[in-house]
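Running log. JK asked me to keep both predictions on one page so they can be read side by side. First protein, sequence followed by its tokens:
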Amino acid sequence: MVRIGIITGSTRDSRVNTQVAEWVKSLADLRTDAEFELVDIKDYQLPSYNESVPAVFTKDYQTPEAKPWSEKIDSLDGFVFILAEYNKGITSGLKNAIDYLYQEWNNKAAGIVSYGSTLGVSAANDLRLILSVPKVATVGTQVGMSLFTDFENMSKFTPAPFHQETVDKLLDEVVSWSTALKTIRTSEVLV
């Protein structure tokens, strides 16, 4: 069975990101085809990226906080990113967390649940491009939510009921792609 991390995309103290992540997790927990867990990037307290050797070349991290982050991402087969849109892009905290690693992301699948004033579409497009470099395959289905209609006063998450169907479809794709890509990672180890 594949393991899917639901990754928070914001580290701000006043974030609503965890509300969205917990909602997605509650829907994922109704499934029996994968194991799901919340992965809060804020818990890893990653400083601004400052490794002496880029992650594409090594997994020998000098930053102590990078080691548990590496182990967590390495242990997962796929991801659902809960993406807040800041200034039409992804958050600096999420970009930093992605940049810390490379090999740990390779040949895994990801889905995107975004929100913002324009449904987080620009940020989702950014994230797709960013994830293509460390070889993360992003599924086609995306959940886009509005700060104006899916949140009360932009602070309390109240998703429209129709989003659940889209989340279910996204999870179907993430699970099936993660399962397929796991065979690639397994065959690379055997070579």
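And the second, directly underneath as requested:
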Amino acid sequence: MVVIFILAILLGIGFPSWMYARTKSQAKTCQRNLSKIQHAKEQWAMENRKVNGDTVTMGDIVPDYLKNTPTCASGGTYSINNIGTDPTCSNGGDHAL
């Protein structure tokens, strides 16, 4: 009984910390993906002589500038946006570049 009580206390202390670490890791992964998308967009724009406001799609930058289409670690979707505008994630603006 005492062992179960001690395990419950340890689990109660450790679980929130584990969830926080998991959330932070997902946010960092999302931020890294957004950065890769931005760099691929910039390279595509330079090579194709595009200017701010021009439209770009994921098909334009994958597979030539990105190996594959990045997926959000927390289940969101990425919006590439136009040239000159940073890409965004549907799971929040806290992953800004």
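Observation for JK regarding the second prediction: The radius of gyration is 19 Å.
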